[in-house]
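A student in our group prepared the protein record below, which I am reviewing. I have pasted the whole thing underneath without changing anything:
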Amino acid sequence: MDENALRCRLTTGRNGMKLTLLFVSIIAMALLVGAGSAQDANTKHFAKDGLSFDYPNGWTVIDDSNSDAQQLTLTRADNEAQIKFFVHRGKVNTPEKVTQAKTAIVDPYITYTNKQFVDMGGKPQKAPATTKIGGVDSEGVRITAVLDGEPGEAGIYWTTLSDRLVVLTFFGPDKALKKITPIWDGVRNSLKVEPPPPKGAPSPTPKPK
C-alpha cells in the first residue's frame, strides 16, 4: 500500500471514529432529555410570593398564608404524612434577628408540637437533628413518640434563605414518612426563597379563611 493510500485510510478511520463518538453523544443526550421530560411530566412546580419548590403529581398544596407568613401544607389523600412550610415575610438579616425569630417563632412551635404528642397520649422524646434546605445547612429537632402502638415523628428544621426565616416540618407515622422520604428530599432540595420586598412596597393581601 503506498503512502497516500495509507494516509487516506488513517484519516478516514479517525473521521469515522469521531462520527461514531458524535453519534453516541447525540443519542446519550437525547436519552437524557427524554428522561428529563418524563420526570417533568410527573412533577409540579409551586411558585408564589417568592417561595418555590417542586413536588410530585397526586399531592395537594393547601395554602393558609397570611400577611405575616406563607404557611403551606403538602398532603396526599392516601398517605398520613405531611410536609408543612412556614416562610416568614419579614427580613431576618442579622444574627440578632435570627435569635429573635427562633425565640419568638421556632421555640414556641416546637413546644406546641411536643404538647400535641402529649395531648394525644404519647411520651415524646426530643433530639437535635440537621438537614439541608435549599442547599443550606439547617438546624432541627426530631420529636418522636408512640401513639396507639404506632411510632411517629415530627421533624422540624429551620434556616434563613434570602433573609427570610424558613421552617419545614416532616410529620406523620414512621411507615408513612418512610414512603415519602424521596419526596421530602426533593421538596427541601428544590426549595427556593426570594428576599422580602423592600420597605414601602405593597404588603401581600391576607388570604380569606
About this structure: The beta strands are 43-48, 51-56, 60-63, 69-76, 79-88, 125-133, 136-147, 150-161, 164-173, 192-193. The radius of gyration is 25 Å. Residues 3-41 form the longest helix (39 residues).
